[in-house]
Amino acid sequence: MVVIRLARSGAKKRPFFNMVVTDSRNRRDGRFVERVGFYNPKAAANEKGLSIDTERVAYWQSQGAQMSPTAARLVKQQATKAAA
Fold first, then answer.
1. pLDDT above 80 (res 82)
2. Domain boundaries in the chain?
3. What is the pTM of this model?
4. Rounded to an integer, what distance in angstroms lies between the CA atom of residue 32 and that of residue 29?
5. Does residue 29 have a pLDDT over 80?
6. What is the mean pLDDT of residues 16-45?
7. Which residues, 6+ apart, have CB-to-CB distance to 29 below 8 Å?
8. What is the C-alpha to C-alpha distance for residues 84 and 79, in angstroms, rounded to an integer?
């Protein structure tokens, strides 16, 4: 099954997450099909903390990809920011 989830990168105590499309059998930080965005929970005020290509996410969902709960929350958060 294809899933959209977060892959952790960054340094110790300084997380950075890539939102990726991958096979569910791959490791969390392993091989992926496509990177569709990023999330930086420790972003400074002048840095961009969340960026998601919603068109690509919609495409992958139309192809049957399932979203992790955290990825779904972040996509919803991105949509409310764009609407406001």
1. no
2. 2-83
3. 0.90
4. 8
5. yes
6. 92
7. 7, 8, 9
8. 9
